[in-house]
Design brief:
By secondary structure, the chain is α/β, with parallel strands linked by helices. It is about 25% helix and about 20% strand. It has a nine-stranded mixed sheet, sandwiched between helices. A two-stranded antiparallel ribbon has the order 6-7. Helix 1 packs across helix 7, helix 2 crosses helix 4 and helix 7 packs antiparallel against helix 8.
């Protein structure tokens, strides 16, 4: 994967030499009780063994295809070409499915989204058997999760965030111990008085999140211009609260001028991106890759090297750790 000519100063953030990638889909998993089969895309480097895994949860955007296993190519292509196996499900909330709004769990399917990711882990043997290109090459001790927007909520729950089920008032804990770290892109934040009236009424599962139990290491990525009054009465810092309200170890990447598309991570040249920037996307690609490399192997210096390089790029963003 050749660097885009317009990535600017992001080229100073070190990374490895990319390799070619194989991407296969759909991989179809049968899941009892799910209204349709679970469709996946699997992307992997064509060489290497003991490959770490990223489960990538898509958002809830308005595009016809991006909120599915076919989105987020800028992230997937980079991560896979630099040594990760990336598995992308199409959640029931996808516009590509456009399920009947009376379907249980509609329209967001917050619980089903988390269950999709657990099903992938439960059926890794079947996925490997289906794809000889990756058979015997996965390192199941190094599994991570990443998610954008509503996908960030899905990832947060897998990392340990809890919520109150609006149907029965029970506390929901769906933390997944097989997942060792995560990346949250523009994830939903605090509830209660921080929510808009619209969100409180229409998305009641957002009302009472608890990040205090989100103990799994994570990198939170937020744009300082990601303001959404439809969802929250707070400003862009709403997307920072998964970092500020959770215990360490956590890291925070704040992108100056970044909006919800974070430069265009959901796809190449897509209409829903309002802050198109190859440089910003390249920063996100490189820093998230470096973070996951090092958090999975503390002997790996990719994260510290990337942070050192990024220190001089304050006009683009900043990193905090706790």
């Amino acid at each position: 994967m050749q660097d885009h000519a317009l990535i600017g100063k992001a080229k100073d953030i070190p990374t490895t030499v990319p390799t070619s990638v194989v991407s296969i889909g759909p991989v179809v998993l049968s899941v009892p009780g799910r209204v349709v089969d679970l469709h996946l895309r699997v992307s992997a480097p064509t060489s290497g063994r003991d490959l770490p895994i990223i489960l990538l949860s898509h958002g809830q955007g308005f595009s016809n295809h991006l909120s599915s296993m076919n989105g987020y190519a800028p992230l997937v292509d980079f991560w896979a070409s630099h040594g990760f196996v990336v598995i992308q499900p199409t959640h029931l909330s996808s516009k590509s499915l456009s399920l009947d709004p009376k379907t249980p769990g509609a329209p967001v399917f917050w619980r089903s989204r988390v269950e999709d990711m657990k099903q992938i882990l439960d059926q890794l043997d079947r996925i490997e058997a289906y794809l000889p290109e990756i058979q015997g090459r996965l390192d199941r001790s190094r599994i991570t999760v990443a998610g954008h927007s509503m996908g960030g909520h899905t990832a947060s729950m897998l990392l340990g965030m809890r919520l109150t089920d609006p149907e029965d008032g029970t506390i929901v804990d769906l933390a997944e111990p097989r997942i060792k770290a995560g990346v949250l892109f523009g994830a939903p934040g605090s509830g209660g008085a921080d929510l808009s009236a619209f969100t409180t009424e229409n998305y009641p599962f957002f009302r009472h999140p608890s990040f205090a139990e989100m103990t799994t290491p994570a990198l939170v990525v937020a744009g300082d211009s990601d303001v959404n009054p439809r969802l929250t009465v707070r400003g862009a810092d709403w997307h920072v609260t998964p970092y500020s309200l959770s215990p360490g170890p956590k890291s925070l990447l704040t992108l100056v001028g970044g909006k919800h598309g974070l430069g265009g991570i959901s796809g190449y040249d897509v209409a829903e991106t309002t802050d198109e920037s190859p440089e910003r996307v390249a920063v996100v690609q490189r820093l998230t890759w470096a973070y996951l490399r090092s958090i999975l192997d503390h002997k790996d210096s990719a994260w510290s090297a990337a942070c050192r390089a990024f220190e001089g790029l304050g006009e683009i963003g900043r990193v905090e750790n706790k």
